[in-house]
Amino acid sequence: MYDEDEVHNGGVGLPYDEVVRACHERQVAHVAIYGYSRGGGATYDLTSGLHDNEAIDAEISGWIDAIESALIGHDSETRRPPFSGFHVNYYQRTGSPGIPITLMGNALGDPMPGDFQMNVTTAGWTDAASNPLNHFTIDDDVRVMDGVRNRIEATVPR
Q1: pTM of the predicted structure, to 2 decimals
Q2: Of the four, 31, 81, 125, 129, which is 20 to 30 A from 95 by CA?
Q3: Is 60 exceeded by the pLDDT of residue 148?
Q4: pLDDT tens per residue, range 132-142
Q5: Where are the domains of the chain?
Q6: What is the CB-side half-sphere exposure of residue 78 using CA atoms within 13 A?
Q7: Helices marked H in the chain — which ranges?
């Protein structure tokens, strides 16, 4: 697990080095990359860098309420991670008081949408106090966490 700031320009950095070592030195054959918020933007950058520099592709990627990395901006991440075999995207579009509009995930656009996408706002998901999930609560929701984990487990061969 790494902080999104560890992924630098071109997708390189400590997470990149770890995946390269795992694949080349320990013969790891299946790569899954996942992030939350700006970690979604870092997921995009990391998958791109791994493919471009090492010909390593993520078998599965996922994110919750992804925001573009600081290298690009702070808008919703709407691009599918390049060369990801399967992508999971949970996001919210709640306009909550005090939460900047830039802290909302979004659906992935054409030409390559996610393999599984869920807008928890449209689905009516709420927290324990019956408030709509927002950028600060979506990542703690057990339905979201289970959804990501279950899809990763179902997709990556064992």
Answers
A1: 0.90
A2: 81
A3: yes
A4: 999 999 999 99
A5: 4-155
A6: 11
A7: 14-25, 38-54, 142-155
